[in-house]
Design goal:
globular, 122 residues, mainly beta, three-stranded antiparallel beta sheet, 2 helices, six-stranded antiparallel beta sheet, Jelly Rolls, 9 strands
Length: 122
């Protein structure tokens, strides 16, 4: 590993857009994995705006990150539910749906689950 690495999410190596213009994921790639910043627009829901891209019944990515702005509800396949808001750290196992709460964008920085998130499985 180099002594220092500098990359900017303002100049991502990849951008993935969600269905219906309901947000995007900016991604930078590192040897240890990807780091992503996702912007989820009001009205966004995983099962409506990412499921058609992912092709799975629920989100199969594990997430570890921080909510930078807004609010999001995440519901696990077993029914467990939690709302996350600004400055909350989150760890979420695979097998969930999620949606934005309110009229503010939800912005999340994730350093575990965004490498394959919203990526078409061809």
């Amino acid at each position: 590993m180099a002594g220092m690495i500098r990359k900017s999410l303002n100049e991502p190596e990849e951008t993935r857009r969600f269905e219906d213009g309901k947000g995007k994921l900016d991604l930078i790639n590192l040897e240890s994995g990807g780091v992503g910043r996702a912007v989820f627009e009001p009205g966004w829901q995983w099962s409506r705006h990412v499921k058609p891209i992912a092709g799975t019944e629920s989100c199969q990515a594990a997430h570890r990150g921080v909510v930078l702005a807004g609010r999001m509800v995440i519901v696990m396949d077993d029914g467990e539910e939690q709302e996350f808001s600004e400055s909350d750290y989150m760890e979420v196992a695979p097998g969930h749906d999620a949606w934005v709460v309110g009229e503010e964008q939800c912005v999340i920085l994730d350093w575990q689950g965004f490498v394959d998130y919203a990526k078409r499985q061809d």
